[in-house]
Design goal:
The complex is a heterodimer of chains A (133) and B (115). With 133 residues, chain A is of the alpha+beta class. Helices cover 35% and strands 26% of the residues of chain A. In chain A, strand 1 and strand 2 form a beta hairpin. Chain B is globular. Classes of the chains: A alpha+beta (133), B alpha+beta (115).
């Protein structure tokens, strides 16, 4: 389950804090990944307090290749989001600009509709941030 | 349909916007049973959806997020939902306007009835 990180824990303009104000104090976290699955912004703290963003991002970014293949062969257009419910978390993936990927993980108790809304806000934040970078 | 999965698939196909519902072998992507609207290629849907679900499940496990229980992919012109139990995956393909909340509830109920 992702551990929340308060926004005031970061220095100004720290890319790890890009989504902190959108995530609030809930048990949720967000990562912006590049097209190689490398972390551009955000942070993912595991239960032991260690940043496991690189590992989580690398593992889950591979799902998008399977998603592209499925949508292409089924002729249902480009994929917009993937929601994956696991034993301990709800993980959502959405495409970001420049072939990037937005990953939002929330506790299993977070309502799915809320997860979706936060994901949309994070995607928008990432778009602005990448365009300004 | 006379298979043990007939009632499960019928209940899913009755949902508004559902184009296809299938029970698929997770390991090889082969159709065990299906309920398809005209024009749906069951073999193709089964292979691709099972592959996607398997990849998502393995990735979630590798990321130490625990085992996956439900997956939903939303695309411009359709949705793919999958839920697994043991070696079987229940797959639904639906229209973009389908009520995903209702489909999810039905799938979670149905997956519990899989052997």
């Amino acid at each position: 389950m992702p551990t929340p990180v308060p926004a005031h824990a970061f220095a100004p303009n720290d890319p790890r804090a890009l989504f902190a104000d959108l995530l609030g104090d809930h048990e949720q976290t967000a990562l912006l990944l590049d097209d190689q699955g490398l972390v551009l912004a955000g942070i993912y703290l595991g239960e032991d307090g260690r940043d496991v963003g690189a590992e989580v991002g690398a593992e889950l970014s591979g799902v998008t290749d399977a998603a592209r293949r499925a949508t292409r062969h089924l002729d249902i257009g480009n994929w917009r989001s993937i929601v994956l419910e696991t034993e301990i978390a709800v993980v959502t993936l959405a495409p970001a600009v420049g072939d990037g990927l937005l990953l939002l993980a929330a506790s299993k108790t977070t309502p799915l509709g809320l997860v979706r809304r936060v994901l949309d806000r994070c995607v928008e934040r990432a778009r602005h941030w990448l365009e300004a970078a | 349909m006379g298979s043990p999965f007939a009632s499960i698939l019928e209940s899913l196909t009755r949902q508004r916007g559902v184009r296809a519902s299938l029970v698929v072998d997770q390991n090889d992507g082969i159709v065990v049973d299906s309920s398809l609207q005209i024009g749906q290629d069951g073999d193709r849907v089964a292979a691709l959806a099972a592959s996607l679900y398997r990849k998502a499940r393995l990735s979630a496990g590798a990321a130490r997020l625990g085992s996956a229980s439900f997956m939903h992919l939303e695309a411009e012109r359709g949705r793919i939902c999958a839920a697994g139990r043991n070696d079987l995956v229940l797959v639904v393909v639906a229209d973009p306007a389908a009520n995903i909340g209702l489909i999810r509830v039905e799938m979670m109920k149905a997956v519990g009835a899989l052997p």
